[in-house]
Amino acid sequence: MDLYEHMGKDLFRAHGVATPRGIVAETPDEAVAATDELGGSSVVKVQVQVGGRGKGGGVALCRSAGEARDAAARMLGSDFKGHAVTRVLVEELLPIAHEFYTSVLLDRSVGEYLWMLTAEGGMDIETLARERPEALRRVHVNPGLGLRAWHLRELVGVLPVDARDGASQVLRAMWSVVQEADATLVEINPLVQLEGGEVVALDAKVTVDDNALFRHPDLEALQDAFPVDPVEKRAKDADLQYVKLDGSVGIIGNGAGLVMSTLDVVAQAGGRAANFLDIGGGASAEKMATSLQVILSDPSVRCVFINIFGGITRCDVVAEGILEALKQVEATVPIVVRLDGTNAEEGRRILAEAAHPRIVPVATMDAAAEEAARLADAA
Ligand code: GDP
Ligand code: MN
């Protein structure tokens, strides 16, 4: 479970990580009130679970309540990189002297936490690791031994001398977040030193282990505050696994493995998936209708690819399900269908006889992927 920045910062505060004062706003008026409360200036930040807000216009430095109103009005209700903005975080505007980076993440390959820290804030961490590895401090922290003084010395040793004590305090508090919230990732980018010398977490990215959520009902309850995408909700209510992506081919398959390989073959054929949906076992007409409704309600879908391998699921039933579904749902884009496995011949015959204007039956998975990619491209 990924926390929104403002939730991550609440958790930070509860464990003693220094953060700017901040207030969540859902309307421009609330952003104005928050800015007044914070002393007349603020930083307004979109609350979405996607990075690059700073560069993408999702962070506004506001010198007055009026500027905060304009920023909030522009952001709220907008779409930031495909994510609906329903809330902004209004924070006190702080004078930054230096930007650093630190993160701790569970390194499953060694069964320890990997802690990284660099004084070079703003740099892409992968690029830095490759090009200037000496600028990036990395230590492994054994969960049994915990964060020790030598880890801290090694990590903060790369920072300016007058930032080391403040940073050590932040790191100790981060460790208690990791332990007490069962976090698998805590990232602070940027960790800043203010002009007055204090070290503060300006951003918060926290992932809590889903398998440990039962120990944290308070964190689990935060999910109720997550904005729900209407399409995702419909899929969830129908017990379908739906994931939104950013291409143009809508994918329906039965079984996680088949759906994953369908994504691969579509990519290999030069296409990009707009989304995918796993209908699981048993593709009844009703389930197929809901699936098509879900997939087609995404405006970026230019072509649908239905890829079914019949095991217990019978392809003739699936074929009838698709035809039945198309009586309930109006398809505006081509639907490439590949059926294989149990009763595939029969399924293909049913589709051929129906000669539905939108259905494009293709016999093999590779050929179907190519056809779907081509049709999506041509649209
Ligand atoms: P991200 O781009 O989505 O990671 O968003 P961040 O929360 O990291 O903010 C991006 C950038 O906005 C930071 O690196 C800072 O340069 C700037 N920023 C955010 N808060 C403040 C602030 O209080 N004061 C100043 N001067 N800059 C800020
Ligand atoms: Mn950031």
Record the SSE blueprint:
Layout: H1 5-14, E1 22-25, H2 28-37, E2 42-46, E3 59-62, H3 65-75, E4 79-80, E5 83-84, E6 88-91, E7 96-107, E8 112-118, H4 125-131, E9 136-141, H5 149-156, H6 164-181, E10 183-194, E11 199-201, E12 205-208, H7 217-221, H8 230-237, E13 241-244, E14 249-253, H9 256-268, E15 273-278, H10 285-296, E16 303-310, H11 315-328, E17 335-341, H12 344-354, E18 359-361, H13 365-378
Parallel strand pairs: 14-15, 14-16, 16-17, 17-18
Antiparallel strand pairs: 1-6, 2-3, 2-6, 4-5, 7-8, 7-10, 8-9, 10-11, 10-12, 13-15
Descriptive key words:
D-amino Acid Aminotransferase, Chain A, domain 1, Rossmann fold, 6-stranded mixed sheet, binds guanosine-5'-diphosphate, binds manganese (II) ion
Name the CATH class of the largest domain.
Alpha Beta
Stretches where pLDDT is under 50 for at least 5 consecutive residues are: none
Helix content class: 25-40%
Task: Kindly estimate the percentage of residues that lie in beta strands according to DSSP.
Answer: 25-35%
What does this structure look like?
It is a single chain. The strands form 4 sheets. Strands 7, 8, 9, 10, 11 and 12 form a 6-stranded antiparallel sheet that branches. Strands 13-15-14-16-17-18 form a 6-stranded mixed sheet, with helices on both faces. The chain is built from 13 helices and 18 strands. It is elongated and about 80 Å long. Strand 17 (335-341), helix 12 (344-354) and strand 18 (359-361) form a beta-alpha-beta unit. With 379 residues, it is α+β, with helices and mostly antiparallel strands. It folds into 3 domains: 21-91, ATP-grasp fold, A domain (Dna Ligase, domain 1, 2-Layer Sandwich); 96-223, D-amino Acid Aminotransferase, Chain A, domain 1 (2-Layer Sandwich); 230-378, Rossmann fold, CATH 3.40.50.261. The chain binds guanosine-5'-diphosphate and manganese (II) ion. Guanosine-5'-diphosphate binds at residues 20, 43, 45, 51-54, 59, 61, 91, 93-94, 96, 99, 189-190, 202-203.
